[in-house]
Input
Amino acid sequence: MGSRADLLHTKKVSAVLKEFGVDCVLRIASAHKTPLKVLEIIKEYEPERVVFITVAGRSNALSGFVDANTTKPVIATPPNNSEFTRVDIFSSLRMPSGVCPMVVLEAGEAALAAIKILAIGDENLARRIKEYQQKKQEDIEKHDSEVMQNG
Output
């Protein structure tokens, strides 16, 4: 997180990760205010099998900064909690050449994207994703049947 203000959005991410049994560590560091701390955190986790999920609003330098300093995947999920979100989103979408964090706007979907990346090398996690998708598909079929019957 770029600041404590991002905690609510981040907890939505961590809840989905925990649901799938994926470990998650929450940290706060600002690319603007504490760039050396951001670099220390990247260095700490870089040796692990990791996907960095960055949560930062306003001017989201955090996602690009993390991506530019790691070989690991980075998913930006900026919080949607301000009247300026429509403007602020461009700081997540427009990156300099060679900097490529993925952007997923919804917290839960950002977690799912990370889980799918991790599932590439984890058959158990891949199976759990497939089961999750099947449940979502079954829900749609059920809802369709209910609408058809109740018109």
In short: The first strand starts at residue 52 and ends at 54.
